[in-house]
Amino acid sequence: TLLIAQGEALFYIGEDQPRALTGSSIVQATAGRKHAILAQANFRITMIFATSARTIEEAEEEFTNEAYMLQSRHL
Q1: How far is it, in rounded angstroms, from Cα 24 to Cα 38?
Q2: Region of residue 7 (left: phi > 0; alpha: psi -120 to 50; beta: else)
Q3: Of the candidates 36, 31, 32, which has an alpha carbon nearest to the alpha carbon of residue 21?
Q4: End-to-end CA distance of the chain
Q5: CB 3.0-4.6 Å disulfide test: which of 7, 13, 47, 49 passes with 43?
Q6: Positive/negative CA dihedral, 24, 59, 18, 43
Q7: ∠ CA(29), CA(50), CA(68), 5° rounding?
Q8: pLDDT (tens digit per residue) in 5-24
């Protein structure tokens, strides 16, 4: 899984100190990760992963066992 971040934010990746992101950044994400992001200005994040899912719902179920908590399920 790759995360493409655009904008300004502090990115907590399980480390003691956050990583400052500015502009465009690519972050390799591992399974079971826990991230927190504190946006400091306009910020956008895109996740890319290989899948054979045919619907958004199938893809969401594939990448998390907590799909019921995703914002897309509560629109």
Answers
A1: 16
A2: left
A3: 36
A4: 25
A5: 7
A6: positive
A7: 75
A8: 999 998 887 767 888 888 99
Token pair for 38: 């504190």
| DSSP SS3 for 25 | strand
Residue 39 CB neighbours (<10 A): 15
**Measured distance CA(38)–CA(45) in Å, rounded:** 12
The model carries a pTM of 0.66
Phi, psi (degrees; rounded to nearest 5) at 44: -140, 140
Task: Quote the strand ranges of 1-75, DSSP E.
Answer: 2-12, 19-28, 36-48
